[in-house]
Design a protein that fits this description.
Thrombin, subunit H; Ubiquitin-like (UB roll); elongated
Length: 557
């Protein structure tokens, strides 16, 4: 249900370009960033582009990261265009792939990096506010690990990126002196979480072993392989707390066919065991793995009172199909009529309509010229052409944090649908709620949803995330774009902070894209929330969502 673009931060913010200077060397072009006060305190390094001989001089403050410095230069922005990410490979006085979260104060004098553009998501270590004050350590790890077992050793996949795995360069790992080897690699951002749940150690020159509980201060400037045991970690170390926006990444993919067959066998075995248990006890038991079904554990009441059907049938007349076409930027969402021609939908829907880089002063005009609403899309094969209503040109009423916006219809009041809001209703604490909207842009429909109570949200999200990530990340289970898009193994506990707010109602639903802006009703047909968002991922080719939520009308009004 979330039409908004991933809320990941945009590192290519405009920091200014300044003026360019030419150095005395004919092959060196000196680039200048906006912040060049106190040049004597800045760290200088050089960057060359793939297949180019020029060296671009760049400068950053000691506690700035490599990424923030490099992408602030216009020469990088111009070349990056539609590419998703960059890699920096040490070519002089620095070895291997640099972690883009490395602080400039850790760089050697006169260091040179080769900059490579790619279409993989950025993977690097995120830092908290206190991290830059600590002393740091650099060491190197081979991108191909090895697995130890009774049958000897074999190669083990330990890194996320296919591109980096296939290269012969090593990772330069950036860590702080008070961290263990285990913490350093788990926080690095480029390694698979196999390192979090398997026994492993570092091996130097094939003969010297370092346990991962040792401090990184003992291994500065050394080079290692990671040897992973087939045994699971017993008394597993407490999971490292992610820093900043750091993500917990996917599990390893060893052999696609074998893993797929194993997952099918395991799944069938679990389902058969459940069947026997249900048959023996004479009642249904809900498996934790039902998170992977389309409605992920949704409990639907089998008997809905006829009076409620009648109430919802009346309420649906106020629900609209919102569509836009802004210079070939097309999409759809849901909305509903509040009163007197005012309609409510989600703030992120408006962001999708206007696009990036448009000043808020121009939003009303863009929406007015590109957007319209139809309250009569009840049949999949027919949208009445004479029922489209335009959006008026007026100042928006919006709340970004609660993800809502109020628009106004530009039409005769006689064409207004029934009013939906007459007073403020409190959301129920538990039980069922009912969503009416246009999921995936289809005809108007209703979904019956089980509430996830406020007191149980954190525990339920943690459990579902753990259950979902227990299965390995493969192209079969997570899709061919895994782990780049819509993969549960990219989610971490930190992504779900907004659902812990008392200003939102949480529930399970199968209403995904196109349904943002749908009203949520209680068992008496009272509107109690605005359906806004969810956490989508792919599972064996099907769209799933970990949890769905929307701001309550009590919070909005």
């Amino acid at each position: 249900s979330k039409e908004k673009a991933s809320n990941s931060r945009d590192p290519l913010r405009d920091l200014g370009n300044g003026k360019n200077k030419e150095s005395d060397h004919p092959k060196v072009r000196r680039e200048s960033s906006k912040q060049e006060d106190d040049l004597q305190d800045k760290i200088e390094f050089r960057v060359s582009f793939q297949k180019e001989s020029k060296e671009h001089v760049m400068m950053g403050k000691p506690n700035q990261t490599l990424l923030s410095v490099v992408i602030s230069y216009k020469v990088v922005k111009d070349k990056m265009k539609n590419r998703k990410g960059i890699s920096l490979i040490g070519k002089r006085n620095f070895n291997g792939y640099a972690n883009l979260g490395t602080l400039c104060k850790c760089l050697p004098a006169n260091g040179l990096f080769e900059l490579v553009f790619h279409n993989e998501e950025q993977m690097y270590r995120s830092l908290d506010e206190t991290s830059p004050e600590k002393k740091s350590v650099l060491f190197h790890v081979d991108t191909s690990g090895r697995r130890s077992g009774r049958a000897g050793t074999s190669l083990a996949k330990i890194v996320r990126s296919t591109m980096l795995k296939e290269s012969r360069n090593k990772f330069c790992v950036f860590a702080f002196e008070d961290e263990t080897i285990y913490e350093a690699l788990c926080k690095d951002g480029r390694f698979l979480p196999i390192l979090q749940n398997r026994r492993w150690k570092l091996v130097e020159n094939g003969i010297t072993y370092y346990e991962n509980k040792l401090p990184v201060s003992n291994i500065s400037n050394k080079t290692f392989e990671v040897e992973v045991s087939n045994e699971m970690e017993t008394g597993q170390q407490e999971a490292t707390k992610p820093e900043g926006n750091e993500t917990v990444f996917q599990c390893p993919e060893d052999d696609l066919l074998t893993e797929y067959q194993s997952s099918l066998i395991k799944k069938n075995k679990e389902q058969f065991s459940e069947f026997l248990a249900v048959k023996g006890k004479g009642k249904k038991e809900i498996s934790t793995m039902k998170i992977f079904k389309e409605c992920f554990g949704k409990k639907i009441c089998e008997r809905i009172p006829a009076r409620l059907h009648e109430i919802l049938a009346e309420r649906k007349k106020s629900v609209g199909y919102l569509v836009w076409d802004n210079n070939e930027r097309k999409g759809s969402a849901s909305c509903f009529h509040l009163a007197k021609g005012y309609i409510l939908t989600c703030y992120h829907v408006i962001l999708d309509i206007v696009g990036e880089g448009v000043e808020k002063a121009h939003w009303p005009a863009v929406i007015h010229h590109s957007t319209r609403v139809n309250f009569h899309y009840d049949n999949e094969n027919e949208i009445p052409d004479d029922k489209w209503l335009p959006i008026a040109l007026w100042d928006l009423i919006a709340g970004k944090e609660l993800d809502y916006v109020v628009l106004k219809l530009e039409t005769d009041p006689l064409n207004f649908p029934p009013e939906l809001i007459s007073k403020e209703y409190l959301p129920p604490f538990n039980g069922l709620v009912y969503i009416i909207g246009h999921p995936e842009g289809h005809e108007k429909s209703t979904d019956f949803c089980s509430i996830i109570t406020y007191m149980c949200r954190e525990e339920e999200v943690t459990r579902r995330l753990s259950d979902g990530q227990r299965e390995g990340c493969t192209h079969t289970s997570c899709g061919y774009k895994a782990p780049d898009e819509n993969c549960i193994h990219l989610m971490s506990r930190q992504h779900f902070n907004e659902v812990l707010s008392s200003d939102v109602l949480t529930y399970d639903t199968s209403f995904f894209q196109g349904s943002s802006g749908s009203p949520v009703f209680d068992s008496k047909g009272h509107p109690v929330a605005l359906h806004a968002a969810g956490y989508l991922y792919q599972h064996y080719g099907n769209k799933q969502s970990l949890i769905e939520f929307g701001p309550t009308f009590k919070a909005i009004l």
